[in-house]
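Ticket #4471: structure output looks truncated?

Reporter: J.K.
Steps to reproduce: submitted the chain below (224 residues) through the standard prediction queue, then opened the result file.
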Amino acid sequence: MTQKSVLFIADSLDNAHKFQRILSGLDVTVAAGSSLQFRKLLVQHPNPDLVIYEARGEAADGVAGAESLLVEDGSGAILVIVDEAHLAEFRLPVQIKADFVVHGASLEECSTRIRQLLWPGNETSAADFITVDTMTINLATYQVKVGGEPLDLTYLEYALLSFLVTHPGRTYSRDALLRRVWGFDYYGGSRTVDVHVRRVRAKLGPELAQRLETVRGVGYLWSA
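Returned output as attached by the reporter:
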């Protein structure tokens, strides 16, 4: 799968954190903001391959306007997050490729719909599997196995590992990892990255753990 660009528009932290989890495991670049920042973000990041638009609260009436902006911009597709209570009056955009998920949908459903819009026909392709030595990462199911045995990883441990493995040979600072893995609005200390790296290394075992390298004074990288 080739790398795609995603514009994420939401006014609630729950969806921001949820979709950050999903997007961190995909080969995408992400720009995020509130519904009030949508037009400005579209100018700063034109022609995104996908816009994920949370149509809740005051933004619920903005789907038609969002569609018009995207048609004008020449953007690829839109995934609308809608409350189940509003489905009766909800109208899916028709001028661009579009789909929707109900607020509260599972991670698996949201991930599948995103893949269908970004990589049609490849949602369950072999590209969802990454193999490094005895380790296999399934990006579609968020599972990691070493020697055929599943690893008991927390979601953040999985997200950290999968992000670094899908970006091998590149060093990321602790602050960059906080933004890319922990979420758009994470303001905790960078020491939590060190804690999670230690836990991931311990669970991977000594041979694979050597690939998760510390770059002194900078951050961490996954050695291909």
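Triage note (M.O.): checked the attachment and the full token line is present. The mean pLDDT is 85.
Status: closed, working as intended.
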